[in-house]
Specification:
Layout: H1 6-23, E1 32-36, H2 42-50, E2 55-58, H3 61-70, E3 78-81, H4 90-96, E4 99-103, H5 106-115, E5 123-128, H6 145-152, E6 158-164, H7 173-190, E7 199-201, H8 208-213, E8 218-221, H9 223-226
Parallel strand pairs: 1-2, 1-8, 2-3, 3-4, 4-5, 5-6, 6-7
Helix pairs in contact: 4-5
Length: 232
C-alpha cells in the first residue's frame, strides 16, 4: 500500500483541529485526534505513527488484534475501541484496548471490569448517549445515563472518563452544534469533583469544527487521515 499521502493528510487534519480550537478560545492541545484505522492495513497505521499519531480507533476485534500483533514494536500506541460491543468479545476488549467508546450496557460493563487483567490499569470508558431517540442507533437515552454512570463507577476494572455520541448528519453548523451542546450540558449536570467526566468523544470529519466549538476533547477521523479504506 502507498502510504506517502498519510503524513500530509494527518497534518491537514491537525491544522483543522488547531484552527477550531483557537476559534473556540480553548487551549492548544485540548483536543485529541483519534485516527480511525478500521479496515486500514498495519502499514497505514505505521505511517501515521511515524507522523506523530498515537491514538487509533478500531471497530472489529479480530482485525484489531491482528494489527496489534503486527505493530507490537510501537509501544506508545493508545488503542481505542469504537465499534459496537458484543458480549462474546468483552474478554479480548478488556485485555487488548486502552479505551472503550460506546459503553451502553451494564452487563457489558460488568464483564469488561471482571475481565480487565489485574496487571493493567482500569479500562478507560466513555458512555454512549443516544441523543436522537432512533432505536437503531446505539447508546442509552439521556435520562438513563446517570443510573448507568453510577453503576459503572462501582466497577473496579473501569474508569469512566466521559460521554460519547454519534449524532445524525447535518449540513448546517448550527444544526451540527445542537446535539454536541446537548451532550456537553448532560456532562455538566452529571460531573462531580471525583468524577469530572473530562472526556467528550464527539465529532468526525464533516463536523469536527462544530464538535470542538461545543467542547469535544477527542474527535474520530478516518478517511481524511488515511484515504479511502482499501478493504471495503
Amino acid at each position: 500500500m502507498n502510504t506517502h499521502h498519510i503524513p500530509h493528510q494527518h497534518q491537514h487534519i491537525l491544522a483543522r483541529i488547531r484552527a477550531a480550537t483557537e476559534r473556540a478560545a480553548r487551549p492548544d492541545g485540548a483536543v485529541t485526534l483519534i485516527a480511525v484505522s478500521k479496515k486500514q492495513p498495519a502499514d497505514a497505521i505505521r505511517a501515521a505513527y511515524a507522523a506523530g499519531q498515537r491514538a487509533f480507533g478500531e471497530s472489529y476485534v479480530q482485525e484489531a488484534l491482528d494489527k496489534q500483533a503486527q505493530l507490537a514494536d510501537l509501544t506508545e500506541i493508545d488503542w481505542h475501541f469504537i465499534g459496537r460491543i458484543q458480549a462474546n468479545k468483552t474478554r479480548q476488549l478488556a485485555a487488548h484496548f486502552d479505551w472503550i467508546h460506546g459503553l451502553a450496557d451494564i452487563a457489558h460493563a460488568r464483564r469488561l471490569s471482571e475481565q480487565r487483567p489485574a496487571k493493567r490499569p482500569p479500562l478507560n470508558v466513555c458512555l454512549q448517549v443516544n441523543l436522537s431517540g432512533e432505536t437503531r442507533k446505539g447508546g442509552v437515552m439521556p435520562e438513563a445515563v446517570g443510573a448507568l454512570l453510577a453503576e459503572c463507577r462501582m466497577l473496579p476494572g473501569l474508569r469512566v472518563r466521559g460521554l460519547m455520541t454519534l449524532p445524525a448528519p447535518a449540513e448546517d453548523e448550527a444544526e451540527q452544534r445542537r446535539p454536541f451542546r446537548a451532550l456537553r450540558d448532560l456532562r455538566d449536570r452529571l460531573a462531580t469533583p471525583d468524577c469530572p467526566l473530562d472526556v467528550l468523544s464527539m465529532g468526525m470529519s464533516d463536523d469536527l469544527e462544530a464538535a470542538i466549538l461545543e467542547g469535544a476533547t477527542c474527535v474520530r477521523i478516518g478517511t481524511a487521515v488515511f484515504g479511502a479504506r482499501p478493504l471495503d
